[in-house]
Amino acid sequence: MPTELEELVGFIAHPTLQIRAVALENLVPYSLSQPSIFKSQELVPVKHLKFLVKDHPKNAEHALTILINLTSDQKILEYVASDEKFLDLLIGYVTDPAEPNANLIAMLLANMAKWDGIKSFATKKLPAPEKLQSNDLVLNQLLDLFVKGADGTYNKDANFDYLAYVFADLSKHAEVRQFFTKAQEYDGVVPLNKIKVFTEHKSEIRRKGVASTIKNAAFDLPSHPAFIDEDQINILPYILLPIIGNEEYEVEETMDMLPDLQLLSPDKQRDSDPHIIQTHIETLTLLTTTREGRELMRKIKVYPIIRETHLRVEDEGVREACERIVQVLMGDEAEPGTEEAVKEDDDDDKVVEV
After folding, report:
1. Contact of 80 with 67, CB cutoff 8 Å
2. Residue 110 reports pLDDT greater than 50
3. Which of 27, 47, 69, 165 is most exposed, with minimal Cβ within 10 Å?
4. Residue 12 near residue 27 (C-beta atoms within 8 A)
């Protein structure tokens, strides 16, 4: 005999709008406390929730919230993320400038991006809304939405911050990393150049996701020359500025730093999130894989910035990251032709959580 909650779950498929509304609203907290009630009958309730994304906006809001909570379960995550028609629907909705639940859809996509099989969908082609002025590649549409939609400028009801987590998880895959470092034909812009400007954005979610995306892209060793080239990706100012604070340096050190790091205001603060600082330092460490990268960082006085960060940030992860890069920058150079290989850190799987 079904329990009261199980009976309530059954009402989300009721033909009457008002009854569905009451059931969905009351079930939202149980999607966290008792998610098993949605796993009955081979996930039939989850199937109904996917359909309800097309329901009245308020019902869709509750359905999306429940799905966001339920996709922390691996079985449900795979069931939802492997549904290509559902993904098509979500992309169509999230890119609609009038969609009231766009932020929730972005959050659901961020969870779905944790399923490895979704990487192929990122390179799928779908028609883009005219207002977005993007091309038909899904990943380009999400990037343009992330950039143009910041602070409610594309959709008054959304800021699309959680798309940063989508990029972070997708960029763990080699083919997506390469996408982020290559200019796109439709606009001639390298995707990393679109998002690097958000490393100092007011949104911690945006900063964190972008930092992780940059770090993951830096595992692509052939792209390192472009990363440090001032006329290409030129990533160093964007990952050093969040690390540096308002401390004073010797004149000789300051003069050799990148121009963007000189003459900072007295109230300049480093990023408030130690995890983001650690991520940026780990990116710098990846970029020391080549001799060219190491020599440039010594030349522009990265060491003093790391030294001061180590002194001022009381976080074990940050200090360990500082110590690792200092060992590289202060160490003796190996003979030519003996560059170390880049190895991906297994901890990257834990970079992003929603």
Report:
1. yes
2. yes
3. 47
4. yes
